[in-house]
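Q: What residues go here?
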């Protein structure tokens, strides 16, 4: 049994949050450069500006987007690891709180009814899963809400099948238009239940732009959905062009014989995430 002090988790979350706030993921940067080189007209100019923005933000250690996001933390905890010290949730929130203060990041978390701001961007959204081993894997993603607000859940009929899944993904992107700051990434959860398919969609966003499912039929869904979204012609920031989406990633889980839940979690062009293993 390996013992880990939750103070170590706090420090790791703190460092990850600081870095994520000012830098895009390497795969996102590569995808934006490729989109810029392939685009034309006003959409190309917009992509050039986005590339200049993330380069400047990383160089000067400035927030890469004014919406510094809601802190999303996904954690896999090995069953042979024992935690000591402060409560895990408190450790995560303390790391987020300190990072948003020290990084001069906008604090955006508030009561859903009164709208009173918590003042420190906590509480974070924390998802935990018990896995084999004695390691702790932590993924941190600051999720902006311009894109989060464009996300949707569909409770499809099983008979709608693959075409219905693709239609739901494309409809989500079409209805979103320019509002989620495209080019977007679509994280898609297929199966599970009403709640678990949304977590699958969030996990899908973290899989990496340009990757494909190891299931051939689901990889085909990703490919066809991406082609159809880009055929919409929305383009970067709505300036019309060939690149409306950088990627479509799908994750799946078994579901009930009577249902086909599909969640589409939209991410803007500003994909910020960090992963560390403790």
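A:
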């Amino acid at each position: 049994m390996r013992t880990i002090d939750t103070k170590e988790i706090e420090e790791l979350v703190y460092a990850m949050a600081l870095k994520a706030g000012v830098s895009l993921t390497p795969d996102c940067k590569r995808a934006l450069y490729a989109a810029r080189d392939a685009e034309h007209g006003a959409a190309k100019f917009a992509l050039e500006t986005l590339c200049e923005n993330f380069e400047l933000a990383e160089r000067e250690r400035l927030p890469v987007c004014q919406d510094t996001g809601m802190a999303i933390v996904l954690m896999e905890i090995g069953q042979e690891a024992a935690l000591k010290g402060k409560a895990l949730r408190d450790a995560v929130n303390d790391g987020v709180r300190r990072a948003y203060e020290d990084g001069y990041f906008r604090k955006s978390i508030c009561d859903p009814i009164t709208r009173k701001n918590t003042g420190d961007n906590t509480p974070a959204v924390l998802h935990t899963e018990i896995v084999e081993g004695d390691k702790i894997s932590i993924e941190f993603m600051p999720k902006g809400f311009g894109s989060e607000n464009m996300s949707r859940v569909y409770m499809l009929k099983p008979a709608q099948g693959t075409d219905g899944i693709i239609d739901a993904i494309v409809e989500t992107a079409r209805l979103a238009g320019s509002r989620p700051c495209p080019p977007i990434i679509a994280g898609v959860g297929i199966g599970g239940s009403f709640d678990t398919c949304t977590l699958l969609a969030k996990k899908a966003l973290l899989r990496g732009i340009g990757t494909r499912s190891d299931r051939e039929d689901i990889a085909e869904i990703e490919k066809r959905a991406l082609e159809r979204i880009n055929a919409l012609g929305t383009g970067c920031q709505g300036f019309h062009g060939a690149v409306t989406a950088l990627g479509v990633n799908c994750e799946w889980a078994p579901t009930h014989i009577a249902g086909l839940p599909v969640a589409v979690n939209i991410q803007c062009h500003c994909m910020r995430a960090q992963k560390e293993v403790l």
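A: Context that may help when evaluating the design: The first strand starts at residue 2 and ends at 5. The chain has a mean pLDDT of 97.
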